[in-house]
Structure formats: C-alpha cells, structure tokens
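Page 37, continued from 36.
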C-alpha cells in the first residue's frame, strides 16, 4: 500500500507539471498573436524605420533586411544604432543597412534628416513611423511642444510630409504608423494640446498622441487616394521593451510586479513587430488604406479614431505647429 502511495505522488506531480507546461505554451501562443506569413522579397526597395535601434523597430529592420531591402535606420542614439545595424548585417547577410540621425523631439532634426534622405536616396518604398515615447514626465521640446505629442505624432507628421515626393515617385509605396490600443481612451484637446492650462497627466498625454497617430494615418490615406501611396496604423501589442521605462519610474512597484509575469504576459519584440511587418509587405492591402490593424488583421478603432472632421482639423493644426506649408 505504501509503495502505491509512493508511486502515485510522482505521477500526480508529473501530471500537474505537464498540464502547467501545456497551459503556459498555449498562453504564450495566444499572447504572441498574429504572425506575418508573407514571403514577399524587397530587393531593390528602400525602407526607412524610425526608432530602429531597439525593440520592435530593430526587429522590423531585421525582417526588412532579411527580405533584401535597403534599410535606413533613423535613430537618436547613433552609437546604439550603429551597433544594432552591425548585428542586423551579420544576422541577415545584408550589408545594405545605413544609419541616419533623427531626433523626433526636434523639428530641425526632422527637416535635416528629410533633406539628407532626399539628397542621398533614389527611392522610398516603405516608411515605418515606429519611434515613440510612453508616459514620460512633462517635458517640453526645443520647439515648445509637449514631448509625447511631439515625438509620437508631430515629428512623424512632418517627416512623412517632407518625404511624400519620394513616396509618390516610388509608388506603390506605404506609410506604416505604429499607434496603440491606448488610442481608444484618447481625445484631441485642441484648446490645450500641450497641457498648458490643465494638470499634466502622462497617460492622458500618451493616449492623445496615439489617437493622433490613427487620425493622421486616416487623413493621410484620404489625401493620397489615387497616388499609389497607402497608409496604415496599428497596435503592436503589449511588449516588454524599453518603452515602459517611464511607466516603471512613475510606479516603482510595477517593476517588481512585472519582472517575472512579463515573461509570460507580454509579447517579445519579435512578436510585437509582426503587425508592422504585415502592414509593410502583405500584398492586397491597398484597398484598406487608412485602416487600423492588430495581430496582423484589420480591426476597428475607437469611434473618435474614425472622425474625419477631427482628423482634418488635427492635420491643419499639426501643419501650423510644425511650419509645414503644403504645395498645391
């Protein structure tokens, strides 16, 4: 009898472990979400990715390089960017990787990058507006803009418009804007975009900037209809990257709480890059220009993300703020 008990305990523990492993595997598969299945090659194409030296930006560059594209990595930290570029070259065998300086908090830097790109590159097939900041303290940029709206939206707004000539001459081409599900709680406060009149709230600011991404992408698609340039916005998923560093600063306990569970409950950067890659390369998305994607599938935005009147107003206000004068 005691032998039977002794034998049954390991069996029970083994069954529990097996079930636990299966549950973890299934959980991770569900959290990973969609995977871009396209095998499209990009030889002869040029891709520009902002915020490309870490996280999903770096993984997106890796995928574009693996497909044979010329990849331009636009980054604020040139040392880290050069290191990331070397890693991508070695991993993919693609030496056609270049690094360019871009500080999206500076409209001067944005203009300088655009000027350099136009002078040095023959084409631009895919522009991936990936860079961003999340829930940082209230900082003002050199232009007097609140940092989250400046980096996440205004810098990309200006960069995209300055490069439209290259995008149009390279058509069919695409603009991919990395937004977030956080846009669903956002509102564009036109009378106080930079929190000059109201108390600063990092989450409210972040949501506003991510909603701006969605609205910009939608209005861009409307304006570019018939040009061969298409535009998409997306939610990459909840990812364990450096983007969360300010969140952990605001809530110190969160670092300890997330340190272990995050391995299970958040996407890896490779998984988080899948929807960006999907929007960049998947054939047949042309008729879905202006749409919003998540887990490699088109999905609905919040109602305010489909408000064309707000999108048009945001475009005009953004152009005024960054000093962009549209050509007839």
């Amino acid at each position: 009898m005691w032998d039977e008990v002794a034998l049954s305990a390991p069996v029970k523990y083994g069954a529990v472990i097996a079930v636990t492993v299966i549950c973890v595997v299934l959980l991770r598969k569900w959290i990973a979400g969609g995977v871009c299945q396209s095998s499209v090659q990009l030889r002869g194409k040029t891709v520009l990715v902002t915020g490309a030296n870490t996280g999903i930006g770096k993984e997106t560059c890796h995928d574009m390089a693996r497909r044979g594209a010329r990849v331009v990595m636009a980054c604020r930290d040139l040392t880290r960017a050069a290191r990331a570029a070397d890693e991508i070259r070695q991993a993919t065998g693609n030496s056609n990787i270049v690094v360019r300086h871009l500080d999206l908090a500076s409209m001067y830097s944005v203009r300088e990058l655009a000027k350099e790109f136009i002078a040095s590159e023959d084409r631009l097939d895919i522009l991936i507006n990936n860079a961003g900041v999340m829930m940082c303290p209230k900082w003002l940029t050199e232009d007097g803009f609140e940092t989250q709206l400046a980096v996440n939206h205004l810098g990309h707004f200006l960069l995209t418009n300055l490069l439209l000539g290259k995008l149009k001459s390279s058509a069919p081409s695409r603009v991919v804007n990395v937004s977030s599900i956080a846009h669903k709680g956002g509102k564009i406060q036109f009378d106080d975009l930079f929190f000059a009149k109201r108390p600063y709230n990092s989450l409210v600011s972040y949501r506003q900037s991510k909603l701006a991404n969605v609205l910009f992408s939608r209005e861009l698609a409307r304006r570019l209809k018939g040009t061969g340039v298409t535009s998409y916005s997306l939610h990459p998923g909840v990812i364990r990257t450096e983007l969360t560093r300010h969140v952990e600063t605001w809530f110190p306990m969160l670092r300890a709480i997330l340190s272990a569970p995050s391995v299970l409950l958040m996407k890896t950067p490779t998984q988080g890059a899948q929807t960006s890659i999907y929007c960049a390369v998947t054939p047949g998305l042309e008729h879905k220009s202006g749409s919003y994607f998540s887990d490699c599938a088109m999905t609905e935005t919040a109602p305010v993300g489909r408000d064309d009147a707000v999108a048009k107003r945001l475009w005009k206000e953004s152009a005024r703020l960054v000093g962009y004068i549209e050509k007839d």
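The radius of gyration is 22 Å. Flag for discussion at group meeting. Strands lie at 46-50, 70-75, 97-101, 126-129, 173-178, 229-235, 292-294, 297-299.
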